[in-house]
Design a protein that fits this description.
The protein has twelve helices and eleven strands. The chain has about 280 residues and is an alpha/beta fold. It folds into two domains: about 160 residues, Rossmann fold (3-Layer(aba) Sandwich); about 110 residues, Rossmann fold, CATH 3.40.50.1860. The strands form two sheets. It has a seven-stranded mixed β-sheet. Helix 1 crosses helix 10 and helix 4 crosses helix 10. The longest helix has 17 residues.
C-alpha cells in the first residue's frame, strides 16, 4: 500500500494522476489541516511532524510514502532522505519516502527545460525561504527568481479559484515574474490555478512537477509484472482511504472544487490526534 501526505488537499491532484497510471493500487491520503500549517512550523518541528505522520501511516500498512507537499519535502534531508528517495525508520517499521521537491528539480533539469534561461519559482514561505530551489537550480545559464505566494494555497483550500481578491493577489505575486521563461509551481495546490497563472503570464511555460512524480512512482515503486495490467484495470477504487486531522467534509468539498475529485464520505476518516510514538 502507498500513502500520500500533504498539509491540505494539494496532493489530491497528484492522487488523481497516480490513479490514472495505477488504478489497482490502494492509496491512503493524509491531509494534516488540523495541525499548524506546515509553512509556519520551524524546520525541526516540521521534521518531527512528518516523522510522526509517517509512523502512523506505516502502522496502517503503508510501506511507501509520497510527500506531495513542498514545505514537508524541504525537511526530508533532516530525516535522512537527501535525494530522490530513502528509507525512514519509524516505531511501526521502515517506510520508503520520496518528496516532490527532488522531482521538481529533476523536471527542470531534464528535457526542454534544460534550455530555459530564467525560471520563476512560486511557493509557500517555508519552501522559498529554505533556499532549496535556488541551491539546486541556480548558477550557470539558469537564473532563478523566487516569489512567496502564501495566500494562494489558502484560496485553493477554500475553493476560491476565481474572485477579485484572488486576481489582485495573483497580480502582486506574479508581476516581478513577467519576464521569466518558465514558472515552476512549488506547491501542489497551485495546479488548480494553472489557468489563472497562464492568464497573468501569457506565453510562459508552466512547470508542474506532479506528473513527473506520478510517472516516477508508477515506474519505480508500482511497476506491474508482465500480464499485470489486465488485473489492475479490474480493481475497484473503493480500497482508497482519506484521513484528515481537520474536517472531513471540508476536505471533500475542497477536493471537489479544486480538482474535481469526488471523495466518498464512507472512505474518509477524522484523526483526532496522532498516537504518541512508543
Amino acid at each position: 500500500m502507498i500513502a500520500i501526505l500533504d498539509w491540505g488537499i494539494g496532493g489530491v491532484g497528484f492522487f488523481e494522476l497516480l490513479r490514472a497510471r495505477r488504478p489497482d493500487v490502494p492509496v491512503i491520503y493524509f491531509s494534516d489541516t488540523g495541525a499548524t500549517p506546515y509553512g509556519k512550523l520551524r524546520a525541526a518541528a516540521l521534521a518531527a511532524r512528518v516523522w510522526r505522520v509517517a509512523g502512523h501511516l506505516r502502522a496502517l500498512g503503508a510501506h511507501r510514502l509520497v510527500i506531495a507537499c513542498n514545505a514537508a519535502s524541504s525537511v526530508l534531508p533532516r530525516l535522512g532522505v537527501p535525494g530522490t528517495s530513502g528509507v525512514l525508520a519509524t516505531p511501526a517499521g521502515p517506510i520508503e519516502i520520496t518528496g516532490i521537491i527532488d522531482h521538481a528539480v529533476r523536471l527542470v533539469r531534464s528535457g526542454n527545460a534544460r534550455t530555459v534561461g530564467t525560471i520563476g519559482v512560486i511557493g509557500g514561505r517555508r519552501t522559498v525561504r529554505s533556499g532549496i530551489y535556488g541551491r539546486a537550480l541556480g548558477g550557470g545559464v539558469r537564473r532563478i527568481i523566487q516569489r512567496i505566494a502564501q495566500p494562494l494555497s489558502a484560496r485553493v483550500e477554500a475553493g476560491e479559484l476565481a474572485s477579485p481578491r484572488l486576481e489582485r493577489e495573483l497580480a502582486a505575486i506574479l508581476a516581478p515574474l513577467a519576464g521569466v521563461d518558465a514558472l515552476l509551481l512549488a506547491c501542489t495546490h497551485y495546479a488548480a490555478l494553472s489557468t489563472r497563472f497562464a492568464a497573468h503570464l501569457p506565453g510562459v511555460r508552466l512547470l508542474d512537477p506532479a506528473p513527473a512524480l506520478a510517472d516516477w512512482v508508477a515506474a519505480r515503486w508500482l511497476a506491474l509484472a508482465p500480464g499485470g495490467a489486465r488485473k489492475a484495470a479490474a480493481r475497484p477504487r473503493g480500497a482508497d482511504l482519506f484521513l484528515t486531522t481537520g474536517d472531513p467534509r471540508a476536505m471533500r468539498i475542497a477536493a471537489s472544487r479544486a480538482f474535481g475529485v469526488e471523495i466518498d464520505a464512507g472512505r474518509t476518516r477524522a484523526i483526532v490526534d496522532l498516537p504518541d510514538p512508543p
